[in-house]
Structures are given as structure tokens and as C-alpha cells.
Amino acid sequence: MKKNRSIIVLLAASQLFYILFLPIWFTFFGLTVIRSEQSESSLSTIAEYIVGAYPVVLIAVAVVTWTAWRKGRLKKMILLNTIPILWIAPILITFLVANL
Q: Partner of 68 for a Cys bridge, out of 6, 49, 73, 81, CB 3.0 to 4.6 A?
């Protein structure tokens, strides 16, 4: 039971972090939209869709990871729970580089 409790705490804490990151993502998404409006390239449009997918991916990952936890597929749960980091890491790196 203790092992399951620690996994629940890990899962809930990581998803809480992802939710708390939404205001930072919203700011970054706004900058992406402004940048893509200035540029007419298709890469800007693709970047806008990729960055804009974060809330959708966050909800989908939350549903799938809690379903995997319920079914006892812990490795799948942990692996899938790291997917939102693909959005968080570039944003954090951008802010860190900009503040150096």
C-alpha cells in the first residue's frame, strides 16, 4: 500500500506542476501567436499549433496516466506522465537563456 501511495503522490505532484505551469505556457503561447502573425511562413503556423497543443496534451496525458495507474501499468504511467515535459523544457530553457 505504501508503494501505491508514493506513486499516487508522484503522479499528483507532477500533474499539479504541469497545471501550475499553464500561466507561463499561456504567456509563451501569446508570444508565439504574435510572432506567427508577423511571419507568413508555414513553420510559424506549425510552431503555433505545436505550442498550442499543450493543454490538450495535458488533459489527455492526465486521463491516460490515471487509467494506466488504475490498471496497474506503472511503467506506462510514468513514461506517459513525462510527455508534457516536451513543452515545459524548451520554455524553461528559453527563459533561462534570456535571463543570462
A: 73
Check: CB of residue 29 under 8 Å from CB of residue 62: no
In whole angstroms, what is the distance from residue 33 CA to residue 37 CA? 6
Backbone angles phi, psi at 41, to 5 degrees: -80, 155
Residue-wise DSSP of 10-45: HHHHHHHHHHHTHHHHHHHHHHHHHHHHH---HHHH
Total Cβ atoms within 10 A of residue 77: 21
* 44 Cβ contact partners less than 8 Å away, ≥ 6 residues apart: 35, 36
Phi, psi (rounded to 5 degrees) for 33 = -65, -45
d(C-alpha 45, C-alpha 28), whole Å: 15
pLDDT digits (tens, 9 = 90+) for 68-89: 999 989 899 999 999 999 999 9
First-to-last CA distance in the chain? 45
